[in-house]
Specification:
Elements lengths: L1 H7 L24 H21 L11 H8 L3 H10 L13 H14 L7 H5 L4 H13 L10 H4 L14 H6 L1 H9 L3 H9 L8 H18 L4 H117 L2 H69 L5 E3 L14 E4 L4 E5 L9 E5 L2 E3 L5 H6 L2 H8 L3 E6 L7 H5 L12 H15 L4 E13 L2 E4 L11 E3 L2 H14 L2 E2 L7 E2 L2 E12 L5 E10 L6 H4 L9 H15 L1
Parallel strand pairs: 1-5, 6-13
Antiparallel strand pairs: 2-3, 3-4, 7-8, 7-9, 7-12, 10-11, 12-13
Length: about 675
Amino acid sequence: MKNRIKKGSSMISVYGRSDGSSSILTSNGSESRESIDDNKQGHQSLVEWLNETLPYLNLPWEASEEELRACLVDGTVLCNLLNQLSPGSMRMGGSFEPGCVNIERFLAAMDEMTLPRFEVSDLEQGDMIRVIQSLKALKASFSDDGYDKNTLFARRRWSLPADHSKGVDSNFNDGGSQFIEASEINTSHAQILDSLKSNSLQNTSTRSLFDMLDRLLDESSQKMNVSHVYVSILRGIVQVVEQRISNQAENLKNLIRSEEKDVLQIEKEKERSNAELSKLKQELEIVKETHEKQFLELKLNAQKAKVELEKQLKNSELRVVEAKELEKLCETKTKRWEKKEQTYKSFINHQTEALQELKATSMSLKHDVLKIGENYFQDLTYYGIKLRGVAHAAKNYQIIIEENRRLYNEVQELKGNIRVYCRIRPFLQGQNKKQTSIEYTGENGELVVANPLKQGKDTYRLFKFNKVFGPESTQEEVFLDTRPLIRSILDGYNVCIFAYGQTGSGKTYTMSGPSITSEEDRGVNYRALNDLFHLTQSRQNSVMYEVGVQMVEIYNEQVRDLLSQDVPDASMHSVRSTEDVLELMNIGLMNRTVGATTLNEKSSRSHSVLSVHVRGVDVKTESVLRGSLHLVDLAGSERVGRSEKQQANTSPPEFFRRTSENSYVCSN
């Protein structure tokens, strides 16, 4: 029915209103106003009758011919209409049967009632006048002034071809047809009893049993006497109905028991999961306490070393004071010798004595200098021992850093190696914001989508994501959930980021952004590269990183290097900043396959994979870490009929699936 509605009118028009009405031309070609009013009034009364008979249709009061065609084109409404007017008159086929089969059943019933009919082509794509006239005749035949609904004709089943009637009731038509015919033409009692001895009642549907009971009651009410044969028939029917009801009750009990067992099993699994989770939490607390104790020990050692250094500084200051006192003492001795020189009044003796005194002073200074040198050597030896302790503590600190790095990546793995986010694109300018299919977005990633074309439980569908970003979400908010993964790349892990959706859904806006000149509009690609190079610069004292870039295109199961012609073994280009990567991306985008669609003037028709390979060498241990960041720009996943792609640029869905798998292989 869905495909046929699209041929006749849009899906919205089935539930909308239309002001169009057909007009009736006179013999000379001019419109007759009175004929138009009568036709419009009769058309509206027919729509009212359909809504009263089948309330679930909910057709507009002024429904156009195209809306009426879209509603009747699969034949289901026509068969339900006859069943409503005369219960049990039409047997419906399975949901897999085409619509023309139901229409042929309806037309066969119309021929049997000698009412005006129409052709299948009139309902599918022809003029609706014959269809409307046939429905009006059917309405008149079941109105108060037409046939009586309680007549035998209204209650009988119209005989259809054998290939039109399938299902449970077919058993009754095959196995119990002799019994039904016997009851209708009033055969002898002996024949009826022979039918009761067979298994025809067991093979008859419940609906047919009640029809038999209805006929027997009518006949008994006319004859006003009940024979033994009719009593046997009624007793057999009641026993079969009771047996079926008992079987259904037993089936319901078995179903409830199986459901209870499933609930108990789910509760046990939940308890086991909670126990494992509590065990993991306890282990995490133990590891946390161990690291806190190690940190406190390192802090205490640092404080002790600081106290020792302060003591050594105070000792050095004391030695400086002693040197100053010694200098003062030298000055005092010099004055004393000067006084002796004045006393003895002998210039030569004074010079000799002064020379000897200076010699003695020199020897004393030399001795003091040697003593000070020995003290300095002892201090240096002591400081060397302390320095080795500090180096050992630094080595333990490096081990702690490696452990923290491992725990960080384990936390990322616990959050999920594969994370799926949904971003809702805001309405474009000029679009009606009320025409949205989104009914609800939850804080834990729930998304409920409404489909007005389906009835019952299929009207709403629930999707579960890691997180749902609303139309007001900024580029920064979208990137914050993927930012912790950038650090994992430098720790030797592979990360792949890609956007999936139809053309015009905002993939390029999210991944690249409308413009890289504005910091607010920058996409995930630019922010991820900028954060990656920022982390390499901050770690350059401990780890030396080398960054290389590859960019390939996957188009119709063919892989092509967008930066050169070297595939296989795509070329690797060394980069040192985000600007270098963006320059190579611009070169690759110029070589990428694009095409025009009704949704975008310039749309990517292939998958592009930008791979950023990072190689890090630890300065102290010389260990090597390798990680990769894959930024994938997938082509649009919409249907051909929606985007109206050119045939040369269109790949079947199988090709799209295979190229997606190839891009996954390239990313790993």
